Amino acid sequence: AYTTAIRTVGDILQDYDYDKKIVGLGFGSKVGGVLSHCFPLNGNPRNPYCKGVDGLVTSYMDTLNSVTLAEPTCYSQVLQFASDESVRSSNEVEYTVILLITDGGVTDFVETKQALVQMSKQPISVVLVSKYYSYKL
User: Fold this and answer.
1) Can the peptide bond before residue 72 be classed as cis, meaning omega within 30 degrees of 0?
2) Which among 20, 82, 88, 104 counts the fewest CB atoms within 10 Å?
């Protein structure tokens, strides 16, 4: 289900990205035994970019074999990372689209709401895809 969502949305969006570099971030997993709410899917915190949708899917699948999925589900750290990255690379033609794919409700609601409000002043859109039909943010 996740790879289908990544491919369906990613294949459309990557056509608007000249370099096809996609930041791939994970959340809600134990990485090296430590719970993390924002980690690079490719394992490289200094360069979390994947090459296109194929690279993102490959990194996602590789990550599933090396982490343990865990709760709570917190989005704010991933959103803040994307916001900070947008500010760092900002120029007049840059626009960021965040694809957030989840299977559960948000635990850090207040922090997520604050991050979304902050991001509303930036050239950023957030696309939320849930694998459940009755989802509330």
Assistant:
1) yes
2) 88
